[in-house]
Amino acid sequence: MYDFLIIGCGFAGSVLAERLAKEGKKILIVDKRNHIAGNAYDFYNKEGILIHKYGPHIFHTNSEDVFKYLSKFTEWRPYEHRVLGSVDGQLVPIPINLTTINKLYGKNLNSDEVVGFLASKAELRKPVLTSEDVVLNVVGKELYEKFFRGYTRKQWDLDPSELDASVTARVPTRTNADDRYFTDSLQAMPKNGYTEMFQKMLSHENIHVMLNTNYKDIVDIIPHRQLIYTGPIDGYFDYQFGKLPYRSIDFKFETLDQENYQETGTINYPTSNLYTRITEFKHLTGQKHHKTTIVYEYPTAEGDPYYPIPRKENQDVYNQYKRLADETPNVFFTGRLGTYKYYNMDQVVAQSLALFRKIIKEENAVQQ
Questions:
Q1: pLDDT, tens digit (0-9, with 9 covering 90-100), for 236-266
Q2: Which of 31, 33, 191, 328 has the highest local Cβ count within 10 Å?
Q3: Does Signal count among this protein's keywords (predicted)?
Q4: Which pTM value belongs to this model?
């Protein structure tokens, strides 16, 4: 008899497995893939280069609690991610910043002047309902076309005018020369990779891991008291309200017989090419190697579910599943797929730590 059957070995499931095991709970964690670590899984390819199987995963957080928790399972390599965009035949910083504006327009503005410059370009939109509204409000039509519209159409197969405001609200516009992609107070990469961190997280004697396993094949035959589900919530309920749509990515890896390919970790292609971006892993990992591996990302409608599509009609369908989930005893739904919401890695860890505290609190209340 297991205390918890946990579906999914990514951040959501693995953090809960580790925390509950420490409390003396017997855990069975299963995953349909042949590896742990979910989408954060990394490994050494045949040339010996450490790569991320499901595209670049860059850790950043403002939560000291999350960072301190994960530090039990890994040392860190300081790393601040930088992204360039291929725009008008040159490479400029993304998010848009002071340098971006000066390079694109051949100007020498300071921070105060760039505020006025952007204000002169902005198109006031009220109310702000869509991703298009967000961008036009801040930078106007020209920069919207150069940086956002084409990229968004490739990524989501929708025009920004059809997407929730939250999508482009994630990407700030800066009036200083800060060219870091993230501004979180804690930015680092697991020193020996994510997979090793997960191996340590799941190494507790109370945790049993089963890979290559569809939970539906075992859920009725392996006794367990409670279930934690981190897979797609619509799949759990056999799609009775219809399938929740996701965007996926087709990753094309290429290893080159040269030390470096590009000057920064990621280069975005907002208007040119079918792919959205190219990432070179050695920038992220700090690995020294005489060859280098890059990955091209081609967004697609088919494949593994990566990005919930933030539109009102999809949220309405999710809310129907959420009501069912709330009425399902002894089952907890969590993680990006279990709650149909785009979370960064640190947010998933925080969500799992919060759910752990809730579970323990409820158990203690029952026992009293």
A1: 999 999 999 999 999 999 999 999 999 999 9
A2: 31
A3: no
A4: 0.94
